[in-house]
Amino acid sequence: MRTRGPLPVLAVDVLCGAVLATCVTGLLWMTVVRRDDSRAALRAIGAANADAQRDLAALRALRDEQRALLVERRRQLAERGTLPDQPPLVDYFQTVATLAGAHGLQVVRQKPGPALHYPGLQEHRVEYELTGAFTDLVAFLRAVEEVDFWGDVGYLKVQCDPAARDSDSPSRLAQLTFSLFSTPPPEPAPEAVGAS
Known about the structure:
The protein is built from three helices and four strands, in the order H-H-E-E-H-E-E. It is α+β, with helices and mostly antiparallel strands.
C-alpha cells in the first residue's frame, strides 16, 4: 500500500504544476503578445471616437444653421403674412398693367388660365403677351419681382416681334405666364353616415 500512496500525491503535484504553468503562460501571452493587439484596438477606438466627435460637431453646426434659417423664415413670414384665402387677381393685374405702361410696354393679350390645386396650395395662372424694347422688358420683369404679392413669373419666352420685323424697331414680343398663389378653398365636411 505504500507504493500506491505517493503516486496519487505525485499526480496531483504534476497536475497542479501543469495548471500553474498554463496560467503563467496565458498571463505572459496576454501581457506581452496581446498587449500590442490591445493597443492597436485602443488606437482604432480612439480614432473612431475622434471621427464621431467631428461628425457630431458638424451635425450640431448644421442644426444651428437650420435653426437660424427657421428663425429667419418665421421672421419673413411675420413680415409678409400668410397666403391669402382668395388671390387678389384684379389688384395684381392692375399693378402689372401699370408697371408695363411705366416701362413703355404694350399689353397685346391677356388670357386667364385654369386654377391648379396642390396640397395646401392653389395656383392661378394668367398668360400675357407684351411688346416693347428688350431693356424695357428686363426692367419690367425686375419691377414685377419686387411687387409684394404672392405671385411669380412661371414662364417667359422673348422673341422678335413679328409685327415689327420689317421696320427698324428693336421691338420684342414677350410671352409670360403669371402665377398667383392662395390657400385652397376648404373641403366640404363629409356627410354623416346614416343621416337623412
